[in-house]
Hints:
Helices cover 21% and strands 27% of the residues. It has six helices and 15 strands. Helix 1 links the parallel strand 4 and strand 5. The protein is globular and about 50 Å long. By secondary structure, the protein is α/β, with parallel strands linked by helices. The strands form three sheets. The protein has a seven-stranded mixed β-sheet. The structure holds ligand L3IBWBLD and fe (ii) ion (FE2).
Amino acid sequence: MGSYSTSSNSSKLLFRQLFEKESSTYTYLLADVSHPDKPALLIDPVDTTVDRDLSLVKQLGLKLIYAINTHVHADHVTGTGLLKDKVPGVKSVISKASGAKADLYLEPGDKVCFGDLFLEVRATPGHTVGCVTYVTGDASDRPQPRMAFTGDALLIRGCGRTDFQGGSSEQLYKSVHSQIFTLPQDTLIYPAHDYKGFSVSTVGEEMQYNPRLTKDEETFKNIMANLNLSYPKMIDVAVPSNMVCGIQSKFQPFTYSPEMKGRI
Ligand SMILES: N[C@@H](CCC(=O)N[C@@H](CSS)C(=O)NCC(=O)O)C(=O)O
Ligand SMILES: [Fe+2]
């Protein structure tokens, strides 16, 4: 599991990759540890591992300010609602295009700032309509390792499925090629899931070895149309819950009506 923190003058990003094994989800903790407040954010927190994540935040002396999702997840309930309950002041964040409720809505080109560091928002629809990729940057222009948090758009040697939540293989192909494969080749790729035991890749590595996205568009669409995956076990609970979980906690559960099935 990749993790590092830095204390030299040339870098100030603290980074932890955390894993939730039921849904094979990665949650990422990032903080600016040179800033006096040590502002921090969590990307793609899972409800069942919120206490683990918060205990780490506390041990490291960080101030959690944002709970961010890459998209409306279908396989697990996001931890953003619980985090808002447990840490007053934390703001939930998701793309405007997702249609989900949160405190803050992001559009392409927006920057989510924490101290001198930020995440730049890139629209990468195709797995879902509102999928985004977050790319790290540094307002003080100090050299930092560039990282891309790709959600389910680009997985290591794979990609997100495109058969529900407004998915489109055509759109996903364009998103990855125009928004991720145009990043510098040494950009580190951190996905929202891994099912094969990988933890990190690079743009260059995926451009060379991704078994789906190295193909031409027609072949890619054909591959995606024939994945024959079963629906995620939790989809009927997770999607409606995640549409409001940026504002609503687990203690005030969302009431799912069967008529909503297939609409979100
Ligand atoms: N078996 C899991 C769900 C697995 C799954 O469908 N994963 C999604 C990402 S979560 S929406 C996916 O896009 N997979 C792509 C692939 O090629 O596997 C469960 O039941 O939760
Ligand atoms: Fe997903």
